[in-house]
Amino acid sequence: MRITCIPIVITLALSLVQANVTVDKLPRGVAPSRSKIYSPDTKGQWACLDGSKTIPFTAINDDYCDCPDGSDEPGTSACGTGYFYCSNIGHTPAYIKTSRLNDGVCDPECCDGSDEFDGQTRCSNICEQVGTESRKEREKLEKTHKEGNRIRKEYAVFGQSSKKRLQEQLEKLQAVSSSVNQAAADTKSTLDAANAKLKEHLESTKLEREAARELQLAPLIEQQNQRLDHATKIKSLFRTALNDLKENQNKNFHDMAVKATISGYDEYLEELKKQEEEENNSNKDSQEEKEKVRSALERMHTAQDATYDAKKDIGLMFQLLKEMKEKYNTEYNDDAVLKAIKVLDEFAPTWEHSSNDFIGEEFIDIPDEDAGEKKEEAKPEDKGAFGEVYNRIQKGASKVGLGFLFKGSQVSKSEVEIAQEAYNKASEEERKSEEEIQKLEKKVKTDYGPDEAFAKLVDQCVEFKEIEYTYSVCLFGEAKQKSHSDTSLGTFSSWVGDNYDTQLYTGGARCWNGPERSVKVMMTCGTENKILAVSEPSKCEYLYKMETPAVCYDLSENAKNDSNSNAPHVVVYPGEKKHDEL
User: Fold this and answer.
1) Side-chain half-sphere CA neighbours of 362 within 13 A
2) Is the pTM higher than 0.85?
3) Own/partner pairs, 260-265, CB within 8 angstroms, 24+ separation
4) What is the per-residue pLDDT across 217-252, written as a single tens digit (0 to 9) for each?
């Protein structure tokens, strides 16, 4: 029996030894949370963490790198690829690369000085001092976070209430939109019917209306033709004067002003020749158009255009002679030149050269078809033969049953006008309704966070001033760069990631030889909405660092425990997920 019990006793003894090694004698540089993986097996052996080989447990921290991954030297710089655990009692634990051990530098991460253990460099343990300052800063941050979180809760209440209110408004608008749309459709049908009726009426009264228009415009056409005849005669007078000058001027005088005038006249004749050729070519293809009986309005426009062209030619020739008169050598006494100047002087008092028009001759406005008797703008003076013609035609209008030609100003609105006004009003209401629905739908669909807290920030604008520029962002709106003028950096595009702390603004003004400007707004917890810093990590891609209560989320239980100075600190080994200390 005793012999049987000996292996059991030995096994228990080895287990106790192993337990003591695990708890009381962790290899230097190993965190308590990793005690299980830094324990020998029953044979005193230990496996490299990458599983590549097994070595004696006593080979750990022997200042020789046995394992390819360097896991056997957590407390020496032999491998230099692992991480050394600084317990930093009184402050927060930390890890540093093993390559920094005993390098003669007191690493700030190891405030306890444990990274320099070979005695060559003395590093004081300042963890209590650093921990005290750290706790003060943590308390300050906690106070800020607590106040920010209080404000954020108010934001959330506002946002949820606002979203509910917007949803109710949207539903009300959507409920009445069908009736608004139907009203617009009904008024459109009424307008279409009125236009059809008007079209039918116009077709049936076409001859009468044309006759009435003929009577209405006849005196004006006659007056315009008289003006055209006058302009044509003056144009011919100047052509004759310049032709005589060109043929009869004394070429031996070599007067530069005279030569310039003749040269300018030749250019005018050449241009005139081109225009006539173009018109002749055009007229070959429009014989039917020429044979067509033109309306009174078309004849009026033709006469006006021809008068304008004639005046334009007069103005050009007037200027040629005027410049010659001012610059020619008066000592030559050239009869041809003096004759041309005489023509100019006799005509000049009747001509306003700045406007290419005869003095006192105003443009004849063409009245509307239904112009009333009280409209006198186009009426000529009632004197002379022309005045008699005008009066006779106006009086004769009633004899052919066309009294509507000269209706008075008190005539009521037509059926089409009334229908058009009704349709305009109804369609405007429809447009406003659709715009308001779209606007509300956009606001309702906008992602303001899981509890709508960011709705409070809609259209809130914040600025950050630098020496040369002022940067701004209207949240969920537009970001700008201001100097002498405003430059768009983009409009709100989307959230970045799932944490609701980063926004992207895109589609800004394009940079010279670069992309469209854009902004990434990164938010941290604070009691105010303000921009802390602005940078440009890449060309025309800006980064705003901003603080706002909107991201002061509730602290998790783990975060609360971490902030408690009496709770054990947990530090995560690089590359591993956080777990509880053992």
Assistant:
1) 7
2) no
3) 260/323, 260/324, 260/327, 261/320, 261/321, 261/323, 261/324, 264/320, 265/317, 265/320
4) 999 999 999 999 999 999 999 999 999 999 999 988
